């Protein structure tokens, strides 16, 4: 796991696997989170991703908990911080979480205050990659597929957001910026305005990408390729559906075993991962993996790890065995025959968890 890849046009060089941390402080206790991060570093991972709104599912009581856990871990390991690339996110408009953001917008003052709070919790002087968690403007996201101009409530333009981020870069609080849950329009506009007004240029976009959610291939991948922006792929295991652990569930969606991540996310059942079509597609892919002598997890991760679109894949785990399993999948090669069968299922079922 020593290979490093450049993110966008930045000088950030990261491992092809990134450790996601959104369960730290909710499903994962602090002591266990420290052990997971220690193991990841031992195995060569240099890239950690978090967010101000974590842990998830988002609750007032756990807001900022994940960053605090990471900050405590770093403080107890002098000299480690400079060896890591640390990414976090500023939350977009409230989305029903008033403890994160008041009102329906995301002002320049919000961005600055959020950055300062993240720096304090992370116990660091600088954030290597600071991302906007979801667009300030109205977009179809988190299970929605149609854009509705009647829902537009923009208060802070993309230009103004870039100006706020520029102040953080100039102050030395942020090295590079990125986006998350973005659209082709958003990527183009952030790049266009940055180049026109000499503002910070986005290095990355963090979007969902897995076998049951490949909508990124419907245009966003071309935009990112041509603009020199790197993809950080999240949910490569389709929120657990592509591990096979829900294959025996009923037809109305995944029945959650006690302790499983999806059992803690009631809202997920109303979004992309809880759709019966998503489970149906996952079952097909999981069966295909077994037919070819692979575990569903290994096939799903190998598929994501080797896609040309992906710079780094974000894995989220709740235990050391899960971490080792995900890392051990690195280096797995899928045959052309198997890749063709994966694409055939996609052609038939499309993107049920888009």
TrEMBL record:
Keyword ATP-binding tagged: no
Molecular function terms, GO-annotated: oxidoreductase activity
Keyword Metal-binding: no
Domain NADP-dependent oxidoreductase: 16-345
Annotated coiled-coil segments of the chain: none
Keyword line: Oxidoreductase
Domain of life of the source: Bacteria
Signal peptide (from-to): none
Protein name: Aldo/keto reductase
Species in which this protein is naturally found: Ramlibacter agri
């Amino acid at each position: 796991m020593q290979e490093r890849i450049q993110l966008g046009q930045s000088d950030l060089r990261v491992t092809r696997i990134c450790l996601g941390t959104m369960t730290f402080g909710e499903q994962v206790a602090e002591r266990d989170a420290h052990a997971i991060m220690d193991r990841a570093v031992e195995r060569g991972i240099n890239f950690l991703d978090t967010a101000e709104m974590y842990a998830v599912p988002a609750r007032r009581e756990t807001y900022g908990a994940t960053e605090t856990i990471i900050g405590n871990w770093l403080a107890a390991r002098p000299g480690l911080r400079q060896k890591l690339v640390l990414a976090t996110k500023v939350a977009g408009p409230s989305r029903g979480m008033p403890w994160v953001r008041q009102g329906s917008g995301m002002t320049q003052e919000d961005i600055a205050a959020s950055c300062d709070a993240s720096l304090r919790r992370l116990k660091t002087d600088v954030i290597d990659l600071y991302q906007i968690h979801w667009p300030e403007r109205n977009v179809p996201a988190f299970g929605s597929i149609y854009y509705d101009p009647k829902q537009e409530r923009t208060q802070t333009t993309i230009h103004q957001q870039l100006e706020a981020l520029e102040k953080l870069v100039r102050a030395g609080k942020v090295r590079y910026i990125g986006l998350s849950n973005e659209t082709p329009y958003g990527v183009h506009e952030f790049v266009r305005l940055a180049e026109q007004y000499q503002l910070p240029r986005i290095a990355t976009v963090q979007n969902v990408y897995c076998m049951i959610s490949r909508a990124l291939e419907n245009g966003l991948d071309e935009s990112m390729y041509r603009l020199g922006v790197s993809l950080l792929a999240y949910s490569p295991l389709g929120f657990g559906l592509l591990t096979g652990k829900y294959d025996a569930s009923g037809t109305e969606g995944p029945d959650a075993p006690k302790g499983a991540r999806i059992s803690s996310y009631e809202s997920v059942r109303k979004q992309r991962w809880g759709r019966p079509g998503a489970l149906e597609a996952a079952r097909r892919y999981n069966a295909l993996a077994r037919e070819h002598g692979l575990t569903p997890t290994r096939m799903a991760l190998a598929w994501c790890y080797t896609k040309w679109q992906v710079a780094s894949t974000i894995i989220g785990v709740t235990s050391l065995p899960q971490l080792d399993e995900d890392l051990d999948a690195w280096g797995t090669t899928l045959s052309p025959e198997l890749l063709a069968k994966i694409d055939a299922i996609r052609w038939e079922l499309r993107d049920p968890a888009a």
